[in-house]
């Protein structure tokens, strides 16, 4: 086992149950040891938002099929059901209307929350970090495109919408301070006419922050390590727009690297449908050059990437 001077962190809030992970999860050197169970359970995560008075979709615990009539009366015509624990990239989630509730597996009752389906104009995420002394730093808000519940493409700019950035930083700061959290945390939000609504938290480095590897003076990975080890935590400098494209179930293609703006990050995993196996980062101060590179990249990727590339190009205009 690690000595007392070690620092233990985690890259995901759910891990296999083994003798080693049980020891690590209760080890005093595990930073944020008591925070992970709160955020890993969507019930306690939602309860935290309500306790802090932070904007999130109206919700309730789903305990019985007898509740459906009241749920639709209270939450509206579209219900989003999410497993309390586990489920990500669209797994363990359902979008149901009143005549579709029979599709829900029986084991969901008591193990899921149900939220109101939100009308939103876009999705953004905020990645930030908190030091042991309580100070915080943040990256600009990242615009995200999800398809079938999985992140496909992200776009970030040196300057985000000031009002949205201020609201997001205020909310994430409140969460990290309330939990006495140290390290990088990500917060996914919906953009609505009333402002930002929190969707979910991730107590770790986040897929939507991968652009920082090539688009920021300090990547989210380095920022996390700085925070948990007590190293200086200056605000990262972002000088140019960035685009991140998730590689999902696609074979490695070195032709991507023929384009000078493309940075390849390959995870060396077995390629399977729906599995994130890498990502491409593009960063440049000239948005037209970024857009042109995306245009050249499109035929080098399977057809399902085209809509994400078009979406990114629209953000760069």
From TrEMBL:
InterPro entries: ATP-grasp (IPR011761), ATP-grasp_carboxylate-amine (IPR003135), ATP_grasp_subdomain_1 (IPR013815), PurK (IPR005875), PurK_C (IPR040686), Rudment_hybrid_motif (IPR011054). The keyword Nucleotide-binding applies. Keywords: ATP-binding, Ligase, Nucleotide-binding, Purine biosynthesis. Pathway: Purine metabolism; IMP biosynthesis via de novo pathway; 5-amino-1-(5-phospho-D-ribosyl)imidazole-4-carboxylate from 5-amino-1-(5-phospho-D-ribosyl)imidazole (N5-CAIR route): step 1/2. GO terms for cellular component: cytosol. It catalyses: 5-amino-1-(5-phospho-beta-D-ribosyl)imidazole + hydrogencarbonate + ATP = 5-carboxyamino-1-(5-phospho-D-ribosyl)imidazole + ADP + phosphate + 2 H(+). Catalyzes the ATP-dependent conversion of 5-aminoimidazole ribonucleotide (AIR) and HCO(3)- to N5-carboxyaminoimidazole ribonucleotide (N5-CAIR). Belongs to the PurK/PurT family. It comes from Salmonella enterica subsp. enterica serovar Bovismorbificans. Its EC number is 6.3.4.18. Pfam families: ATP-grasp, PurK_C. GO terms for biological process: 'de novo' IMP biosynthetic process. Homodimer. Residues 46-229 form the ATP-grasp domain. This is N5-carboxyaminoimidazole ribonucleotide synthase. One of its GO terms (molecular function) is phosphoribosylaminoimidazole carboxylase activity.
């Amino acid at each position: 086992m690690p000595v007392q001077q070690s620092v233990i962190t985690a890259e995901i809030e759910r891990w296999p149950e083994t003798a080693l992970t049980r020891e690590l999860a209760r080890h005093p050197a595990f930073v944020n040891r008591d925070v992970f169970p709160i955020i890993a359970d969507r019930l306690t995560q939602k309860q935290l938002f309500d306790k802090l008075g932070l904007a999130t979709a109206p919700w309730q615990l789903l305990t019985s099929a007898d509740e459906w009539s009241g749920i639709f009366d209270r939450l509206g015509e579209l219900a989003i059901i999410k497993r309390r624990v586990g489920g990500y990239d669209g797994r363990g989630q359902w979008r149901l209307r009143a005549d579709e509730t029979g599709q829900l597996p029986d084991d969901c009752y008591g193990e899921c929350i149900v939220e109101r389906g939100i009308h939103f104009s876009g999705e953004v995420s905020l990645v930030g970090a908190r030091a042991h002394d309580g100070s915080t730093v943040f990256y600009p808000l990242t615009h995200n495109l999800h398809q079938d519940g999985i992140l496909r493409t992200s776009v970030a700019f040196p300057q985000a919408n000031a009002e949205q950035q201020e609201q997001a930083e205020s909310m994430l700061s409140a969460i990290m301070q309330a939990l006495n959290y140290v390290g990088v945390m990500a917060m996914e939000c919906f953009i609505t006419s009333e402002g930002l609504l929190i969707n979910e938290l991730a107590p770790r480095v986040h897929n939507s922050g991968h652009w920082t590897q090539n688009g920021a003076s300090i990547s989210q990975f380095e920022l996390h390590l700085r925070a948990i080890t007590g190293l200086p935590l200056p605000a990262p400098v972002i000088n140019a727009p960035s685009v991140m494209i998730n590689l999902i179930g696609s074979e490695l293609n070195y032709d991507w690297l023929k384009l000078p703006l493309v940075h390849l990050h390959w995870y060396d995993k077995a390629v399977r449908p729906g599995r994130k196996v890498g990502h491409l980062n593009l960063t440049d101060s000239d948005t037209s050059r970024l857009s042109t590179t995306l245009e050249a990249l499109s035929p080098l990727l399977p057809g399902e990437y085209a809509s994400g590339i078009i979406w990114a190009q629209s953000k760069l205009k």
